[in-house]
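Translate structure to sequence.
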């Protein structure tokens, strides 16, 4: 076990969402741990100062969500996320933290399977909500991160083969839902836009994930832009 890892003494205290915090700044770790542990439904099971030995740390703490700083010494958050998400069986959700809204690691981390990004200057309420959203199986990107992702990483010509493959696999309604997910709409907003029940939208999203072999909504966003279903500048916050 790496010396930079600390297990929580209450790691088996309740049945809340288990959170592991990985950040090289001790004040950040302590602050986030205090905030999340104060929530009835969240439980910090450990903290680590870098990504070294991350597989041992995850095996020891069995988190549901790993709150991972993207820039750390030794093993950075991107490499650590890749290691965790490449393991067989059930793996925790990865919520990446960064102080930059234009980080060159963003697209690579999404490709690796991270479930979301959050800027470190997010409010306490935003951080708590982000952990809950990711733990529930949804994906989360701050508007700043998504706008950067679109403009800096996805403003490239769509690959015709990718575009046609997506269109061949999805129904017209599923293509509509895919476009709205990629533009940043929630399930509730999609339901209102298409005059559908929210549960129907959830069913469409599940089918899209299954048909395209994607992990979560973040990967729907990536696929939609790569295939040209949505183009830079079409996001609702752009």
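Result:
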């Amino acid at each position: 076990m790496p010396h930079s890892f600390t297990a929580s003494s209450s790691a088996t205290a309740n049945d809340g969402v288990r959170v592991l915090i990985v950040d090289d700044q001790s004040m950040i770790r302590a602050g986030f741990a205090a905030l999340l542990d104060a929530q009835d439904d969240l439980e910090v099971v450990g903290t680590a100062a870098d990504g070294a030995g991350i597989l041992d740390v995850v095996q020891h703490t069995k988190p549901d969500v790993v709150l991972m700083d993207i820039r750390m010494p030794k093993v950075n958050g991107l490499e650590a996320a890749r290691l965790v998400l490449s393991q067989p069986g059930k793996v925790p959700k990865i919520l990446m933290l960064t102080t930059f809204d234009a980080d060159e690691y963003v697209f690579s981390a999404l490709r690796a399977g991270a479930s979301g990004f959050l800027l470190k200057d997010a409010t306490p309420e935003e951080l708590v909500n982000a952990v809950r959203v990711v733990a529930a199986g949804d994906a989360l990107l701050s508007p700043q991160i998504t706008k950067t992702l679109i403009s800096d990483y996805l403003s490239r010509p769509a690959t015709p083969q990718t575009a046609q493959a997506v269109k061949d696999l999805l129904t017209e309604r599923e293509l509509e839902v895919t476009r709205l997910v990629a533009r940043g709409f929630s399930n509730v907003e999609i339901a209102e836009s298409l005059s559908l029940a929210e549960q129907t939208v959830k069913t469409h999203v599940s089918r899209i994930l299954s048909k395209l072999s994607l992990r979560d909504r973040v990967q729907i966003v990536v696929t939609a832009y790569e295939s040209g279903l949505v183009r830079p500048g079409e996001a609702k916050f752009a």
